[in-house]
Fold each of these.
Amino acid sequence: MTVFAAMPVAGLAQTTSLSEALGAGAAEEMALPGADLAESVAEAVGQSDVDEEKAADTPASEGEAVPISPAAKAAAEAAQAQIDAWRVELDRIAAALKRSGLVDKDFDELRTAVEEVRDEAQLLEQEQSPAIEALQARLEKLAPEKKEGDNGATPETPELIAQRALIQKELGVLNGLVRQGQVELLRARELLQTISTRRQAQFTANLLSRSRPLLDPKLWWESLEFLPHMETSLELLPADWWSLARKRLGPSAPFVLGAILLLAIFIGAPVRRFIVRRAQRTRDAMNPPPLRKYGAAAVIVLVNVLLPLAAMSIIFAAISVLDLDPERIHVLTVSLFLGIMILSVTYGLARALLAPGRPTWRMVALSDTAASNLTRLSLILGIVFGLGALNEGLNDVLLAPAAMVTLSRGILAMLIGIIVAIGLRVIANGRAENPDFISKDEAMRQSVLWRWGLMLAWPVVFVCILAPLFGYVTLGWFAAIQLVWASTVLGILFLLLLLVDEAITIAFHPGTRFGRGLVVNMGFGETTIEQIGVILSGVTRLLLILIAALAVLAQWGVRSKEVLSDIRNVFFGFQFGGITFSLSTVLTALVLFIIGIAVTRTIQGWMEHKLLPRTRLDVGLKTSIRTGVGYVGVILAGMFAFSYIGLDLQNIAIVAGALSVGIGFGLQSVVNNFVSGLILLAERPIKTGDWIIVGSEEGIVRRINVRATEIETFDRASVIVPNSDLISGVVKNWMHNDPSGRIIVPIGVSYDSDPEQVKEILLTIGKEHEMVLAYPAPYVVFVGFGDSSLDFQLRCYLGDIGNSLTVSSDIRFAIAREFRAANIEIPFPQRDVNLRDMPKLEALLADKAKPAPRRGRARKPSTTETPGSQEIEDGGDGDTT
């Protein structure tokens, strides 16, 4: 472990950003270093010991020293000691960062120490903030009162002055402690940034460091010279280990080690075959369900990962228990274990996703030939990369020279790049067109992924192949590792995304047992269950993508602790412009807002179904009351959520006032419609259930919303009318004051009919209808003398104008029946048509009526015909013979 020397840091260097961290109001007080502020707080606390004796004899006056309470004094001393310890620790870390030669382990230790100080400083501020707010509130209550009409203050008692002085002193001590904590918190954040910068710079420098190129013949010659020594060491290594085993186990060493090896083989081979067969990926299966397909692939991956892991763990555990793992053997066995795991994961993942020979189980849009070739390439890639891991262990154990390490890494990087390049060519040429084993949408998404994957992979492949040739072996080896690692992580992510999405979708389907249980036992609707499944699936997919991104970025020097620390800071609070933002607080406020909305909806439902139906209010007023309660509930829920976040409602009002001009121009129509909706609810020119006519639209008011009013026409079509149109325009409301109304049924009779008889029949029909009011009574109007009829109107009053169409139809049926019985004719329009130029028309018709000339064979011209004329028979060419 690295030992870091403690070095003091100049106080002025620590207070560069104090005015920004603590605010302009504290800049003058905090111009001193952190240690000076600590001394001032300590003096304030220590002064209370001297002042306690004076306080017992004389009353305190304004400006005199007042002792703080013993409890506050003890808490302040403990907090000051903790802050002093933070300062010493941060000084030590700052001194350590000035040293060179730090490695990743050192950076991790330093970061852990700084994060502990940062978390404790944040906790101190959070713990003291409520106490400071309480003291400030008490101090405001004890502030001197102003006389009316005078600039002076009212006289105060000595007790009041003493109490205010005591609170001011306690408040000053707490503010001093919090500000010291903020100083150390600021230093901790700066040190964390320094650690991240140093680590990233060192990682970049190591990655781009240039070594001897593979084109250098001396590199090959020096490596070949090491081969005899390497061969001798490899021969001695197993012999030495076997001697150690015989020494530890005695004559039973072969039997014990053989039993361990057989147990590992039994777990690794037969159990693997048994589980893989249970996956049941049969060749003749036609269109297996997606969940079964993804589950079988996941089983294959788990088998190829867990069983080798279990087998190798048994071997390692046995060797460790038997004390057969010296340092060199331990390094070699770990490298061997890593190589076997890489081979198992790479090959197992390829078989799971590609399913060679089983196209119906395949999860990617590739042809059979491409799937088989890629599976073989994955096996070769796993072997080469596993040999690379074993090679790293051998180089450490055998103390290989730099030339041997450089050459082996460069060759392996180039081999991996060549294998991946061949695989990319196979993918580019082997993508299946319109595959029937996956959906069309999935095939389109995979096509986009393949396109982007190929574009990103080819540059890395070129780096793997070309970088070692020019001396950048570390860069080439790193690129090769990233190719294999990123491909493995993305393959596992692809499988998990499909499996999780399908499993959650099926689980939350109303037709499944789990879905039915949620519907029956918890009262959720079927649509709600499906929506919950979609949201849960989306959140799970997002978490999987985040984990995969962290796994890939870990190789680039990005530590998961740093990312998680940043996420935690965002979640639990971070400073921005002097304001603390906390995602957890925002989410909690959002939950409280949702709860407020739910309570509001519950109250609205209770009023709509329980309270309002038992009142004598009309439907429109009931709707207005329900809507008004909803507005009030939403406003109260929003105010409560804002207050929980910590936003001052007065400041929000100021900001809203400043934005009113912009709202007036940009959101004028929205605000106009909203205000118009409030006017509609208050003034109630229309209400829910009214029959209104707006322009060319006519229908029943169904809902008055925030922005617009919904009208349902008699054709069951919904018409959305902006509220401002209803306020500023002309609206005809059939039911404004009451639902009663008048209908007019026009009727025409022939001129031979008796008008008095017609009137008598119409009045009888109107009075006998059950929906026609007796008062005002129906009456008949003789409208006038029409072109072909005597025109009458039967006018009736209804209790509910909504029945006008039904009543009008009934009355017309009755009129037709009674008029037919009384032989009263209902005429149809008659017209006399006069035609001009009749003689010309008669002459034209006479010409058309003359018979046409007969057509036949050609005959000799008669004496009456003109010479040369003749009859031409049908089909002739008119030539004269």
Amino acid sequence: MRKIIKISFITLLVALVASSGVVYYFYTNIKPILVTEINKALAVEVNVKEINISGLKDFPKLGIKLKDVSINESTSFYNEKLLEAKELNLFIDIMRLWKGDYVIDGVALRDGKLNLADLAKKSNYDIIKPSNDTSNVAVSFEIKSLKLINCALRYSHTPSDFSCNASTPNSNIRLKYLEETTNLKIKTKLNGTTLTVEGEKYISNKDLAIQTGIAVNTASSTVNISTSDIDIEEVKLQTEGTVFFGNNSNLDIEFKSNSTTAQSLLSILPNSLSQSFNHVKLSGNALITGTFKGEMNDNQNPSLHLEYRIDNSNLAIPSQKIKLAKISANGLLTMPNISNIEDASVTCKLRQANSDGNSIRGDISVKNFIKPTVNWKGNAELEAAFLSALADSSSFDANQGSIAIEGELNFIYDTEKGELVPNSLHYIGNVQGKNIVGIIKNPKLDVKNVSFNLSADTEKLVVNEANFSYNNTTGSVVGYINEYNSLFDKNSDAVLVGDLNINNLNVNELYSTSTESNSLASSSSNISPIQFKLNAELTNFKYNDFKAESMTGYLLSDRKRIEMPKCKIDALQGKTAAAISVKKLRENYLLDINSELQKISINQLLKQFNNFEQEEITHEHLNGRLTGNILAKVILDQNYEPILSKLYAKANVTITDGQLKNYEPLKELSSFVEINDLEDVKFKTITNTIEIFDQTIFIPKMRIENNALNMDLEGTHTFENYMNYRISLSVAELLATKANWIAKKKERRIEQNQNGGLTAYILMEGTPEDLSIKYDRTAVKENIKEEVKKEKAKFLKALKGEGTLEEETSETKDYDNVWDE
């Protein structure tokens, strides 16, 4: 009798798990259990610590209590007991059993554990010895009540990589067996239920309540589930269907929920889907109907077909301050294989979604949840603040304005790389932005208004109109973008073509103050996010202290370089034609300028360009009008500051109506030669070619002429203010007499010149604090051209990494062949 109880108990618990949709192979040997001698029925070891039987006063009804019961697995899988229980109670009528009426009034299992597993060709609960009974006598068997109290349940189905874990505080089951059919009525609670298929959690730590009827037929290998109520926390489902558990397991189950909350529906999605909605809060009701169908084997899992409807629901994403109300939508979720979200698809017909000034309508479809192909066709009226929050933008806070969208959008998103699939973006329709106001955080810009009107087809995105203003800057763009479908690709082929007008542009306001932003910029080989060819007109342009009334010309970029090859500039009280370009140079930038200047103010040139980063000859010393060519190549660091050790400039210029005053070396020279006129030298014209490299100004021989004196000067002047000048100073006889030169002619080796005056040869060397000035006719007459050529060659070699400078760094060697010698 003890064996019958244990056998019946195992059979019923297996049926309980089947009622939850987790049993694929049901007990098939009930008949041998009942017709074979009890003491020969079990094929595994059974241990019972203590057996108690109720008194004879209730005879023929008996109560049997077994304590510390354990049954081994028939096939080792968990390496644990198949069944363990602190207590098993059995209530039977001896006389009914004696008469062949196999009815057990009750079985109660308390504080137990049940570990079941179906393997490829066997199970771990096949504990019944084969029967020798070949009779065809129909056998029936019934347990009126089987209770599981505080029991842990575990089930695995290895062919489909399916597993289920739960605990039940209270389950009540009724079982009736007749020939090949077992009928069960089940009412159970399952706490902390986790259901997994191929490592994917479809139910994770949820509380379930199940009330169902199940019919198991071993002849046809089917489990028929009658209309059942399954509550997964707040989700209330009705389900019915059939499970085939033969050689090829198969499911055909229908389910529906007439009323549940939208948020609860998200909570029961598979983890691979539900994680995407962790930050989403939904309120309102939802209706669902669906099917769960298909084979379960090594190569196939069932499909999921889910239709849903949401009415008057609210959506919120608190972290992004997004809210939508009165959402009405319906759609379909299809997964041909529940373990493969790559084949999944979802559609949504969004009839209405509103929030304050926002409204969205349209048809949405998504295919392949690994690399989603997204299609949206509809219209939307969105506040700029809502769109900024939706994009999770940390760089722009919009507080006013709206965007209207009407059209069809398609794109493919690679979730593993976190980016759009190249060339997958397509949009046909219109986009309008109106009066968008906000703050760009880095660089900090006060956006006062952005308005635009865009339209797109399959080939180009047309900028019909775009106006913007920030800080004190205003501008407009009109044109189109070719290859716009690659606009957000890393190697975008998109090109913006059109007209650009900007007033009061201050380039310094566009510098990022973020170290992280500068680091990201330096790691990229591109200087611009998009290619462009714009006919640009900039008025009231400013960069550092440089100001231009206007700059016009084509502004071009291939992403690696930004340039204006033919730029006309009104600035510095004159006119300039220039070719200007900036490009990435490893982690730095190369600014290349080739300009033709017409009568610009040399005083303003020095002043607005910070005296070209030197303090020797500044705007306080030099006045005049400059005409000529200036070539400059400046390497800028990540903060766009010039690296002086790599500066090169060449100026082939003429200065007219010039004045050199209060220049410290000339003041020292004036004192030395006793001629005050050198403290303020005015001249009509100077022409020379001056070069700057290796932090040194190289001045070839040039002549400064006025009525009182002529001066020939050549030499070098470093950025550290070390001078080496050779000067020949010619003065008229009257001035020479005044300066007492004639009396000291022999002492100073002053020569008579061909104009009747006197000429002195002077060598000036040192810093202003330690300046040496002396008469030296021989040294002054030496030609320094060869010295300059050698120094320049040395500098260029160092920049190319072919030689060294006195203060060369490893960074110098990285500099490639930037310009032609």
Amino acid sequence: MAAPAVGQPGYLSIDCGLDANSSYQDDNKIIYVGDDGYVDGGENHKVSPAYLSKFQRPHTTLRSFPTGKRNCYTLPTTKFSKYLLRLVFVYGDYDGKKSSAAAAAPQFDLYLGLSRWATVHDTGGGGEVHEAMFVAWASWAPVCLVSTGGGTPFVSSVELRPLADSMYPGVMTNQSLVMYRRYNMAANVFIRYPDDLYDRYWWPMQQGDPTWANLSTTSAIRTGTTFAVPSSVLQTAVAAAAPAPAGNSSSSSASALSVKTWQDTSARSYAVFLHFADFQSSRLRQFDAYPDAGQVVYNFTPSYLAASTVYSPLFRAAGGVYNITLAATAKSALPPMLNAFEIYYLLTYDGMATFSNDFDAIMAIKLEYGIKKNWMGDPCLPLEFAWSGVTCSNISGGNNMRIISLDLSNSNLSGVISNKFTQLTALEKFYGSDGNTCNKIIISRNRTAIIAVSVVVPVLVVIVLVIAYFIWRVRRKPNNSSYVPPPVPDTKISPEIPAVDVEPLPISESRQFTYEELKKFTNNFSRFIGKGGFGSVYYGCLENSTEIAVKVLSEFSANGLGQFLAEVQNLTKVHHRNLVSLVGYCWEKDHLALAYEYMAGGNLCDYLKVFLYEGRIGVNWATRVRIVLEAAQGLEYLHKGCNLPIIHGDMKTNNVLLGENLKAKIADFGLSRTYVSETQTHISTINAGGTIGYIDPEYYRTGRLTESSDVYSFGVVLLEVVTGEPPILPGRGHITKWVKESVASGNINLVADARLKDSYDISSMWKVVDTAMQCTTQVAAQRPTMSTVVLHLKDSLALEEAHDDRHVTASSVGDAIELVSTFGPSARMWYFFDGSLLQGYNHSIHSGKMSVGVAGC
């Protein structure tokens, strides 16, 4: 597999049909490479001589696929990163059949992964452009051409562009945005890279209506990050030049601008993005966006020389006629204007697919051994295209197919077995090139060795720790303090405490209290402040005025004692600004207690459920994001900052404590588990840990706790912070279910806590929601690490802190104001576009013109 060409960071530009091992730089300084490293099969062709001068160089060659029903390009991606993918199809009479001018024009389907993306049907001969934005679900993204019997599939170019995570917040792992239209108003040139760093195509739309007036400026426009519309695109605009139709809600002297209409009677829903930047600031320009049924956004004022965007949730017009109108308000001194707009529809996929780790592993095997066969697209699905020799099963539940058998016989393979095979963790049978299963024994022996190591190493570690402890006891200096702690009782012989195997408690940095001292410091446990994992928590104050929280074991049981010991042992060996600090403990006869730093702000659960309702502390979104970011940093430290990872086991809002200035720290380590070796991948446990609503669904199936178990629980915490609702809501079910259903509409307001009153940056909110949905995916291996979660939350906080103005006027750079209603039908002017999108693109490159046909209602 070839690597992306250098020249533009992360760009992959494939000229399909280019000679093998060839590359060139086009007029836009974009480096194109051949497609031989990204696809198997197909034939190279050139368009006929009559078409050579009509198209740019990448579109004068193509690859056709006369054999095989499905042929796929496999593109390298970074898991969970956001991309723009564009394919261009120019038939150009390459086969001499002039099919594009006939009814029998080539027609076939285009797939992104397992989602049917579009039908390609180049009837006009000018070519077609298909573009989508998606989040990578694995290290490879397959895009496939599927023959439907309507002609030979072909493709001219494939372009992959990385997008910033903050862009187009509606794009998530299970839903992509497909471009329907993108236009630059009043422009006379086609714009792409280098003006647009993300290489979006901006087609020019010149004045096509006598009620439009062209506007332009040479001043630079400040652009935002959510949509990053290029300054050159925003430097032109159209404005209304005639009064609005009678009956408009605004004054009779106001004017209206009919932005765009199109007709589609299918069930498809659309999202519209309107981009604005005013060129003057001396007079008020204010307008409403509305359908016939009523207003959508009102009193909107574009920012002066700064980008602002209004966009809609997904909607479908009754009757299939779409109209968008901008109407000046009675106060406005200037007519409404529009600089650019984009229209997208949603492409979703929630069905079965190959487990991403298996996909990455089998792709690595394919590349290492140069396996061809039919190994393209998704390895397991659909069944008619499943890879030869690959057997899959839904053994782990959820929506993931696992590779359980691999037959490479008759593949002429030789040499050492690659370690890539061990990454197929569900593999049960492996047939080598000789057709037998002897190689399975090798894999099994490796697993046996791993099991042996995982048993022996912990035993050795325990022995070393015991020896080290006794050496430390012998060598430690005498305590010169006036305080002399009582001896720790032997839990094996104490009649008051059940017998349980424990390690000696490390007390070098933690004070050991007597029970009488704790009674004194807590005023006889008079101030109850909460309930912990194994007992009640009381407020206390030491002799030096240090405030403490004292957690007392409520009953003597092996389970309770085990939680007590787990917490004290973990707290004494972890030190981080976002983890609560242990002050000391009490262990005498029938009294067990922990004393740790007092967190005056309570816990996150109270913050969301009680304090916000009472107005006791601020409700701003930035505070919420900062709290979960700090909690994420604490959890990340447990997973990555310790010598051996610690699994918290009970991550929930109750265990995120808030101190001075609402600084967040993670507490309650009673259910924590520590790995005993660096090679350990999970901890098996019989008794379910955690709290209902937060427990990883995969734990119920496997009985295994992993770092991703904490990640799932933290994802639920994120959704609580977004919605202000508990994990399980009567009548709606689990929070992950109804949030997923709600965000599918593209309207973040459906899930955001109403108490925030829309006072948040939409991109920041989307970032947290998308991160939460990644954390709570059903399959553990598909979840991000806490390190990745921390990075995403830092991005979200930066977006929120940079968002100075939350009002609909969008006075800050890059604001995005969401339209909260649905557009309805209206009898407006229709605009039909001459030729195809691609033909307009090439025409605009050569002549600087693009004709726009106009038709009456």
